[in-house]
Amino acid sequence: MLFDQITIVGVGLIGGSVGLAAKSRGVVGRVVGVDRNTDAIARVLAGAALDDYRTDLAEGVAGSGLVVVCTPVDRIAEVIIAAAQYVKPGTLFTDAGSTKAAIVAAVRGNLPQGVEYVPAHPLAGSEKSGSGFSCADLFVNRVTAVIMSPFGANWERTLAVGRFWEALGSRVVLMNAEEHDRTLAFTSHLPHAVASAVAGVTQSDWLRLTAGGFRDVTRVAAGDPELWAAIFAANKDSVLSALSTFTQRLQEFRSLLETGDHAGLVQWLTEGKQVRDALGT
Amino acid sequence: MLFDQITIVGVGLIGGSVGLAAKSRGVVGRVVGVDRNTDAIARVLAGAALDDYRTDLAEGVAGSGLVVVCTPVDRIAEVIIAAAQYVKPGTLFTDAGSTKAAIVAAVRGNLPQGVEYVPAHPLAGSEKSGSGFSCADLFVNRVTAVIMSPFGANWERTLAVGRFWEALGSRVVLMNAEEHDRTLAFTSHLPHAVASAVAGVTQSDWLRLTAGGFRDVTRVAAGDPELWAAIFAANKDSVLSALSTFTQRLQEFRSLLETGDHAGLVQWLTEGKQVRDALGT
């Protein structure tokens, strides 16, 4: 057991899954959930993810050794700063936000002595949202990026948070916030924008003429628009930069097609295939 | 049984699956395969998709009531025109090409009296290629677009070909070639180009930081570059037009993100979500 008690703030798909995984794997003794939506909490509680729940943040975090913030990205920093007033010395904070640099910057300098925030991003999720889709195995064989603080990371505390995410089944990768955000702009945020754009230019009476390709390319477009708008905003510069690189790549495709350059088109497609083949099925 | 004997020209994933489906469902008495690649044929023959095979087109099509051309799109028209010299009067041709208008135009006026080509496109396939991936159920619950000839379609013959694709398990949709190509540019060809472009701008050491979203968005990028270069070329104008519409849509995303228009971004994402939700999981 790594912690006697943890608190999960924001009990949706990710928060509910953290609770289920932590309980079912014996990682923690007790799980307290905090959410404004009591219906969501009730569902997760019934699913054995939580031992107790509160709608009040101060009550919810009291006595926990680890607070896992699983709210939308645009609320993570304010939740950490607010909750930090109510925790005991030595309490650790981590989170599951899809972007990191903006949150790190907002939290920096705003925590009491002895309270540490070790940012994390478990690369797991679904186009579904809500605690009803929680799953104890959500993190198994997934990567969790654990962020090294640029302002003097405490080794023991970073290790403790890394071990927590590892104990939920994920593989931990240590990186800094900026590298994380630049990379995720390409591997997650750009693909989401592109999937949504493909769906957005598709007329509904064309849907009967779709097959597996369209279905897969657009799957993530079913994700929660509010959550994703916040993610894009929190990683604005890197997303805009990835978008420029992508647009330029697509412009190469256009030129090759316009000029009828068959060999060039085959080469262009082969470069994409090589990357995808390296990922495996 | 709809035909005593059919010939499949081009025994890859699609051709092999046509043979397996036709035999296993009792749709035809006998299946002859024609391919230049004798290895591919041998594998499919062993898999019960073919009764006989030839590397010579004239020998392969002799005596068949239906010839199903499953070659890459850039070879379909020439195969049909060449084979038409060797078939008996009343023989029907169909195909499985992903584009239709260019093939219809090339074949038009080049068939002997009494021989009819009823173009088709079963919306089934895989990023895998080769007869080794053939599957008897490939067409089940998929749509097959059957093209109405703009120059006086013969009702009985269109019906016979439609019934063949239906008998393999697919649902038939009748449409004209231009409508087919314009729609597929959005529902298949654009998604493929976009998937390949996303993969193409991804550095290989970023792949460990990918999750299900990236995996799905880029899956089709693993497809055969030669096959896809031919598809894009055969539907060039419609693909370029779809690409312009897509680029404009993505430009809207960029503007909304740049100006920090949260409500606009949520609305933009919601429009894509509505289309994807309408498709179902």
Description:
Two copies of one chain form a homodimer. Chain A has about 280 residues and is of the alpha/beta class. Chain A has two domains: about 170 residues, 3-Layer(aba) Sandwich (Rossmann fold); about 100 residues, 6-phosphogluconate dehydrogenase C-terminal fold (Orthogonal Bundle), CATH 1.10.3660.10. In chain A, about 50% of the residues lie in helices and about 15% in strands. The first copy, chain A, contains eleven helices and nine strands. The first copy, chain A, has a six-stranded parallel β-sheet, sandwiched between helices. Chain A has a three-stranded mixed β-sheet with strand order 7-8-9. In chain A, strand 5, helix 5 and strand 6 form a beta-alpha-beta unit. The first copy, chain A, is globular and about 65 Å long. The mean pLDDT of chain A is about 95. The interface between A and B is large, with 84 and 84 residues.
The succession of helices and strands of chain A, N to C, reads EHEHEHEHEHEEEHEHHHHH
- The level of helicity of chain A is 40-55%
CATH hierarchy, class of the largest domain in chain A = Alpha Beta
Stated plainly, the CATH topology of the largest domain in chain A is called Rossmann fold
Q: Which CATH-level-2 architecture of the largest domain in chain A? A: 3-Layer(aba) Sandwich
Number of DSSP strands of chain A?
A: 9
How far is the first residue's CA from the last residue's CA of chain A? 35 Å
- Overall domain count of chain A: 2
- Strand numbers in spatial order across the main sheet of chain A: 3-2-1-4-5-6
- What's the pLDDT, averaged over the residues of chain A? 94
Are there runs of chain A of 5+ residues with pLDDT below 50, and where?
none
The Rg value of chain A, from CA coordinates, equals: 21 Å
Which chain pair has the greatest contact?
Answer: A-B, 84 and 84 residues
Task: Determine the CATH superfamily of the largest domain in chain A.
Answer: NAD(P)-binding Rossmann-like Domain
What would you call the quaternary organization? Answer: homodimer
Query: What's the number of helices of chain A?
Result: 11
Bulk shape of chain A:
globular
Helix-strand category of chain A? alpha/beta
Largest sheet of chain A: 6 strands, parallel
